[in-house]
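Case study: DUF411 domain-containing protein.
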Amino acid sequence: MTNKTILSALFASSVALASGLTALYAHATELTVFKSPSCGCCSEWAERLADQGIHSRMEDYEDLAGLKKTLGIGTDVRSCHTAVSDDGFVFEGHVPARYIEQYLAAPPADSIGLSVPAMPVGSPGMEMGKRFMPYQVLLLNKDGSHSVFAEVNSPADQ
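Here is what the predicted structure looks like once written out:
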């Protein structure tokens, strides 16, 4: 191999790597998390997301019920905090990072986001030793309806 061939191959590899990194950062997920000033599990959830590459800005918010109503999150699917992606999708409660990424990769038509209602033990940010309570991740639709997006039956499913 000549030096010119080696340099050409190195240059092509560098361009491919730079393109891949640019694509990665272009698709980076950032959320604004609206929470009660007294809530601690919300910050724990955000830390779990950060471990998975999803970054967030925390904002204390006094009228969470009003915000949730404005965003179209029904009272039966609410939790302690509401996250909103830069492109306007909502993630209510302790939704695992993998499902946020899956949803954002191909948001279903007529949906507004995902929800994990209440605060299931063992969900991200709600860890209590080895205790775990199976739960569902719900798909929230613009018309107020919802359906099951994912079943989380063990910590490995998160």
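For the exam, be able to explain this: The chain has one domain: 29-157.
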